[in-house]
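User: Predict the complex.
Assistant: Input components as received:
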Amino acid sequence: MNVYAVTNSSEVAAALRECVAASRRVHLFGRGTRNRWQAAPPAAAVTLSLRGLSSILRLEPDDLTCSVEPGVPCQELAMALRQKGLELGCLDADDSGSIGGLYASDPLGAPNPGASSPRSTLLGIEGVLAEGLEFRSGARVVKSVAGFDVHRLFVGSHGLLYAATLLHLKLRPAPRVRAAFTTDTLDVAGAVDKFIEMRRNPTMPRRLVLVREASGCRVAGVFAGRARQVASLLQQHSLREVDKAPQDHLQQPPADRELVVGIVRASKIAALADILPAAAPLLVHGGGQFEAILTPAEVDVLFTALPALEAHAAIAIGAPSRVRRTTPLDQGAARLQRDLRSALDPHSVLA
Amino acid sequence: MSGNSADYALPPMTSVVRELEALLGKNRTISSRDALLAWECDGYTIHRQLPLCVVLPESTAEVQSVLRLLHRRAVPFVPRGAGTCLSGGPTPVEPAVVVELARMDNVLSIDVDDLFAVVQPGVVNLDLTTAVKHLALHYAPDPSSQSVCTIGGNVAENSGGPHCFKYGMTVDHVLGLTVVLPDGQIAQLGSSAGPRPPQGFDLSGLFCGSEGTFGIATEITVRLSTDQPCVRTLLASFADMTTACLAVSDIVGMGLVPAALEILDQATIRAVEASVYRAGYPEDAAAVLLVELDGTAEVLHEEAQEVREVFARRGALRIEEATDPKDRPRLWKGRKGAFGAMGRLNTDLYVLDGVVPRTRLVEALSGIAEIGKKHGVVLTNVFHAGDGNLHPNISYDGRDAAETARVVAAGHDILQLCVDLGGSISGEHGIGTEKLDHMPLMYRPQDLEVMARVRRVFDRDGRCNPGKVLPNRSACAESQKWPQMVARVLGEEGRR
Ligand SMILES: Cc1cc2nc3c(=O)[nH]c(=O)nc-3n(C[C@H](O)[C@H](O)[C@H](O)COP(=O)(O)OP(=O)(O)OC[C@H]3O[C@@H](n4cnc5c(N)ncnc54)[C@H](O)[C@@H]3O)c2cc1C
């Protein structure tokens, strides 16, 4: 497999131009930790590794912004921010991936309504189109509505629209105290009620998940703020403080199963759980993202039932022939998606 | 770089108007010159242009029929909400039909468990909060124009407001959109379950802030937020602007995230105090800083104490606090009415909107004062200090072409200053026609080219609000020499 290792934007542009000239497809690659969210690239595709773009170019604690290259490891950025008393709301300090990968894959969405997400923290980018055109979108200040927000398309684009070479991000002060919590085991209806109650809390948890395991359901999450406030929130909602924050994702599925990711409203979780076999692991985030591990036949059943729940899903991990299969997209939106890809990558270089 | 340029010839309008009348009826198709004067401009009064006609659809189906007809007849159109835009967005540049959405003003559904509402685009921002108040919910984005502007307009401009420092802009509260594309096709972007489908692009995020150039939003699904149990509003006055800005830095530096951080300068304070928006602000102060905190009582007690300590350390002249909900509107009254109060200073008001990194606020404000002197214009400042989002206001007599040209030139210099300080030419009011000349200050031709490609995905033949957001090629070159808007103003004067 051919690998281009690049260290700056002009090298990215040159590599992409070369691939266009040679009619070769290109697979953009960060640290590889999120490949589980992507379909495997075609065997003939060239890999463009953005790992070498690995500098934190600017960190302005007083402006609550930073500019980082996509290959910066999430852990390194988390550490640099912690030293300044800051955090990037959507960054998990234990994430072993790159910051570019975090934004390009965004498998989590908002961890809770109103909580920081890749979508809400990306202020602007510098990027390169597949044909080698270098461009900027957005700004590096916390607020800007100048021009069309091409940078928003980067979030969740899985490397299919363009390569980002610099990300401008919005930071916030690190909270004084953080506490992970969980409920005891509940039945589905009880867990959904708790989940809805927590989503309505004026001080929203930083993270909130509903997990269904073999032993039953739990609602877990993380509160952050001032010590007295966090203590009283735990008490008010009868929550138990625990050492570890809840898992963000389900485990890798076994070879005969598929991992489905989707979005569902809180009030439809019980109906979703009803469709799934009782033993199927299910995890739902406060922001609406869910994950489930199912057999291909169960996925097919789920996909036919989801439109009635006004929910959507896609196969994130599974057989190559099935990965990226989704519940049907609205025709107008599907047209826009298709046209955006051909407008930004007219030679269909990005794989 | 097109995306703006129209390669269509207008058909005879009388027949198009007749067809529109057949679709919507005569009373919802306005074409008499006198009546059209009401749509001649928006809040950016420097740019005026009568539409060819105005239509007032009442449903998605009617919008779709209108756009299909205009597509078939190759007629450009301009979506419009309440017309409070401050950058010329809903005012045609070239002959076009205005599609006004104000009659689509129903809240279609409210879902308390899932915290969202579905609204038509003509719903007035504040009316939505009023509709959900009894449920202890609200719609968070709160532009100062919230009692008149529409949610459709807010989406198109990605509007902000005083509370977006903590709660984010309109885009952060939009879950889904039903959009009628310029050729009449309907697209569902995002949904009540979430703004982006798995494995899909963020089309709803992209549509927010597209300034009416990507199509017409006819149903909008927005997130509702739970009311905070307590709110405390503090107001401190300072002997100089620098200290007020430093107090803001101290507050943010301590790790506090107030719901709002707003500053008014002395000229604004005096205009407010002389108007019906009188709020009892100290007229001898060089600046007042309004800080709003929200959360639980115990947290607010600690936070308010910390803010008071900052005020004291920075030598505030006077500190006031509203803990009683009835007293809060008084402290806000002057801020919310500031633009209205400035109307007293002269016949016209040019409200600018630039952003600088918050740490450069002091430099920016002194630079703005210099620019005011250089061009001989009357400048006042009221701004979202937490975000570094400045609103320099220039009061002037719009009947005086030379003064208007000086005003526009001062505006250009101020936005250049914002860019030089690492900021942006717009924090919330958009580009419209007002800032076409300024786009090249911030973006290079290739950046604009990428934006133009994205625009063409939505609007293939450039008929949807043409002449907005993206300058044409010649403007990019010309802007280096002389602001187009000045040339246009002087050119129009010459023709009168
Ligand atoms: C006194 C005053 C204070 C203000 N304060 C603020 C503030 O604090 N923050 C802020 O962000 N702005 C502020 N504004 C600016 C303005 O109110 C906002 O931009 C507002 O969102 C415009 O809404 P509108 O309904 O008036 O839209 P309009 O002015 O009618 O239109 C604005 C743009 O939206 C497009 N549009 C309208 N409806 C639709 C639709 N359904 N689909 C697609 N496109 C559409 C139009 O084509 C146009 O480009 C203020 C304005 C005034 C006059």
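The pocket of flavin-adenine dinucleotide is lined by residues B 42-43, 78-86, 89-90, 101, 121, 143-145, 149-150, 152-154, 156-157, 159-161, 211-212, 216-217, 339, 428-429, 465 (CB under 6 Å).
Let me know if you want any component modeled separately.
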